[in-house]
Amino acid sequence: MSDSISTGATRTAPASHSPAAVEAPDPRRWWGLVIIALAQLMVVLDATIVNIALPSAQTDLGMTDGNRQWVITAYTLAFGGLLLLGGRVADLVGRKRTFMIGLVGFALASAVGGAATGSGMLFSARAAQGVFGALLAPSALSLMTTTFTDPRERGKAFGIYGALAGAGGAVGLLLGGILTSYLNWRWCLYVNIPIAIIAVIGAKILLHDRPGHKDVRLDVPGVILGCGGLVAIVYGFSEAEPRGWSDSLVVSLLIGGVAALVAFLLWQARAKSPLLPLRILRDRNRVGCFLTMGLATIGMFGLFLFMTYYLQGILGYSPVKTGLAFLPMSVAIIFGSTQVSARLLPRVQARALMVPGMLLAACGLLILTRLDVDSAYATHILPAELIMGLGMGLTFMPVFSTATHGVRPQDAGVTSAMVNTSQQVGGSLGTALLNTIATSATSTYIASHLTDPSKRAEVVASGVVHGYTHAIGYAVIAMLLAGCAAALLVNAKPVRHGAH
To answer: What are the TM regions of this chain, as residue ranges (predicted)?
Structure first.
């Protein structure tokens, strides 16, 4: 079982006699990849594109400081909580059909959000984006899994996909800054409409998929327990920042969420058509990839959150300049994914890329723990971004490729959903958890250092930076734990071209 991914070709060998398996590769498959990548980029960047626009939207719609977080949380809650269901729907009705439904729904939700006249309308639209994103993301990844089966081509395709997964968040920050500065915050939502239209037309022409598996049934109790548990935990972490960890609602949500997930696993063991077949979790390589992705994203989303506030609030950067400041990390992620990981994965074990990648990312974050109010971008932030970006690029591509390799066709959607769920839930938990840690550290610092009221502004600024660096220290730990998960669990051997 430990080498199940590396021996996927052996386990699925009987399928080679089926008509579908002996068909020549689709000559337009690389154009199809462009469409899949475009849709995936839209979903990933939407998790961050509104971050920089949030102050403008808050002022325009009259949001309070207490409820403005729901612009972000409504999306991540719906997305992370419903991804497993989206993966099962893709398996049931067909991946191409689910992909196109997700695109159309995402575009409509974006149009409603862009036209929002109040905070409630915007929150609802963001939640709807999350729902349709949960259909779109797993169907996109499973379409790739079934389209690119040759190991050499698979490495290139997943290199591009991994680069988008890693760089999309930073691209969202840049695009959000440009749109907010030169147009309006509403265009951070409207921009999805032309992207979705192009992707729908391209999908109709270029993508192919076998019909859905009629033997797949939707596991309603599994949906309620699994999705409900994830939503409760993510909501609990997000509420811990304004309410405190000992608040009865926070404690109830976290305990209830964990209990629901335990009940979910127990139910999956006996359900006739489980939402998450436990055979997927019996493969140590996939479990290692899920853990690595979740822990790595905790650190990565923490970086986006704190560096956005640091660059704008402490160094006084404009939204556009803030977005540009993240660009070197995007370039490093793309380079690490497409030029290093994609070339080496057919020759080396996946963990030989993932473990060094996580160590590099941890080193990049470690540099940022030395920030102060006067740190320069060129000497502190840029080196950290380049090192961390390269590390994430080395990691994301083998995670996506290894987790989805050799999976049974009827499980491709739900396995793809688990990779995305790991990323989204990790990002949601990381943002809420690290933000709570930072806020607490800042309050403690200010309380102990504010002895002269005339120096309040200086002490507050120092306290804010202290909170950021303190929380980034925990992000370093998350990266190191991700490296440990990869080292201990992922032992898939390289799948070389022509291997059977």
So the answer is: 30-50, 70-87, 99-123, 129-148, 160-183, 189-207, 219-237, 249-267, 287-311, 323-345, 352-371, 377-400, 432-451, 471-490
